[in-house]
Amino acid sequence: MGARMRRTLGFLLAVLITFSACIAHATDGMARDLSAECTFHVVANGWMVERLTDRDYSSRWRGENGGNRLEIRSPEPIYGLYVCWRDEPPAFRLEAFISGAWQEVVAHPAGEKVHVLYPVDGHKRVRLVAEQRNSKRFAMSEIFVLSEGTPPPWVQQWQDPLPKAELMVIFAHPDDEVLWMGGTLPRYAGQEQRDVVTVLMTKPTELRRSELLNSLWTCGVRNYPVIAPFYDRYSGRLVTAYKYVEQKKLDAYVTELYRKYKPEVVVSHDVKGEYGHGMHMAVAIAALDNVAHAMNPKRHAASYKEYGTWLVSKVYLHLYPENSFDMDWDIPLPAFDGKTGFEVTQDAWACHQSQYHIQDFFVMPRDHEYSCYKFGLAFTNVGPDINCNDFFENIPE
Known about the structure:
CATH architecture of the largest domain: 3-Layer(aba) Sandwich
Order of helices and strands: HEEEEEEEEHHEHEHHEHHEEHHE
CATH superfamily of the largest domain: LmbE-like
Radius of gyration: 22 Å
């Protein structure tokens, strides 16, 4: 199935879902957040349970010292638990109090996604029980208890990363996806519904991972990001960054990304690191250099054996001086109720609360030195851009 056909079907499906949602709204309505009306009980650490509903992602409740159970009592039936885990969720059982006794409703395996919606079949008293007693991974930042109805748009229901990407956006840290890439994700993921894979190249803290998920969801991304295992410290030089992240490992990882997800277009950082961040430099250089490596069967044999070779069609880098142009992030986007890509990006930046109040950082406007509008075509296998207003120019449908 071609990309155009997939987007057409995706649009029709979106219309159907919207129509169904309208019907649900007219009858059952949008699900409400019942959290403020509920009571929460735990075996231990009961004094911390209020952190589950303070809507502060920097706080958390952790089920230690016997606190491997979380009970929720609601005045009306519960139809969903939207859990923002602090750590990757462990295996746990969802139990309901039925006919005077606790009964297992469903067993959930351990997972990687940390923002998860768990359906509940209309019970007023439920509990989550970690399979491993005293599990240190049984930790949550926030929990939302939902009534019957269509889940609100802010409830994240993540899909797995796509097996084949039209666009891959590679960035160093949470917030770089909006600060420097501007309206890329709102336009191509949210508005055009292209097949987008986002890649975070450094392992974040638990808080910043949640902030990233909130930001990506705001931008219209619906496929869970790929999160690399690399450790990062601030460095003002490329050579310093390579002391923390070995270049050979970085190259092997990006080569495998290209071979595995087969992106047509790649967008990444400035080779000068925007304001001079060494890891930004390392990521940009890896994004560009490994186009050739991904095509060479003699480079990185393990990923070649598993995925074969792949040729990326185009690479755009932020602030790249050659073949440079300004993307127009000021076009209203119907998928976001007429907000422009730049405005959506500003909303997404506000999700990064731990960074949002740092005065030196904001989404850089068109006339700024590090403008998020400015990109350059650093590599092309499909000819030069003429119109210079679409990352998919010259890419056949």
